[in-house]
Amino acid sequence: MSPGRRIRPGYPAAMQSVKRRGRAVADRVVEQRVAQRVAAASAGRRGRGLVLLWHRVRPEGPGEDEVVRSVATADLAEQLDVLRELGDVVALAELEHLGRRRRPAFALTFDDDDPGHVRETLPLLRARDLPATFFLSGRWRTAAGPYWWEHLESCARSSGVATVAAALGLAPTTDVRALAGALTGTPGSLRLTSRATGGSDTMTRDQAGALVAAGMEIGFHTFAHPSLPSLPDAALRAALTAGRDELAAELATPLRRFAYPHGHADARVAAATRDAGYLSAWTTAKRVARADDEPMRRGRWDLGHLPIDRFRTTVLRGLARPWD
């Protein structure tokens, strides 16, 4: 302490109080982490796991007027590290036959023909030696351009959401996600699909090949991304298979697993998916993964938008929830 500096009355006691509070906070953090590891281990012994889902990954994170919200690259990296801390990241095929284990199992899935899967996600996976499944459409094969909601995003950014809603004859709104929700499964989304010729960066064949070369599994996600329950039987059967064999041949890898567009599936769709020859099919229902799940209606958790503390606690609560 410098000469002549006055010591406030009670200063040492106040500092001791601050230190005690700091130690108490640190102790609680340690206790929470220990409790979390115990809870995760308990889930593993009961043969539980979770399948996680992401769509877009961007360096800067979410952008303006996004229907499908982007996740920042740094946030995804943190999320992957949390999953590795809490359990074991395994291939989707291993999780489908989950038994009792020392730690819970997590599988990673990524949907759509988004180039961020290769530019941002793949380096994170390779640095951590993690497997993942990418559910692709292969739209580059026919230069089909972006998905319908990506075209909607582009129109919303250039003209405004309210203007686009009026042009489509829909109720006034300034929320692009609400607008997309109103269009999903309607002829309006099909009209947007036919107009979607630009406005979005899409995956290329070489980028998809890089996923295969890195040992990642490729699944199918339909070519046009319709809401399958809205389709009549013949169109449903076509959507489940159109472009699948061609994509498998181009990438020289079998497409054994399927992800439902928008996560939508009912009993009729699940039966048709089974008849199409898939080993498993994945919704966006938040269900705990277990070995005796119905193969055509397995669940996935879309949590990428959550702050990291909420991501961690939601994963743990998911593992602990009762059977669905």
Q: What would you note in describing this structure?
A:
Pfam families: Polysacc_deac_1. One of its GO terms (molecular function) is hydrolase activity, acting on carbon-nitrogen (but not peptide) bonds. It comes from Egicoccus halophilus. Residues 104-324 form the NodB homology domain. There is one protein chain. This protein has 324 residues and is α/β, with parallel strands linked by helices. It has a single domain (14-145, 202-320), classed as Alpha-Beta Barrel (TIM Barrel), CATH 3.20.20.370. The chain has 13 helices and 9 strands. The protein has helices spanning 11-45, 73-86, 92-95, 116-128, 148-159, 161-167, 176-183, 187-195, 205-213, 233-241, 244-251, 267-275, 308-320, and strands at residues 49-54, 56-58, 70-72, 88-89, 105-111, 133-136, 217-220, 257-259, 280-282. Strands 1, 4, 5, 6 and 7 form a 5-stranded parallel β-sheet that branches. Strand 4 (88-89), helix 3 (92-95) and strand 5 form a beta-alpha-beta unit. Helix 2 (73-86) packs parallel to helix 4 (116-128), helix 5 (148-159) packs across helix 6 (161-167) and helix 5 packs across helix 8 (187-195). The chain is globular, with a radius of gyration of 23 Å. The relative contact order is 0.14. Residues 25-31 have low confidence and may be disordered.
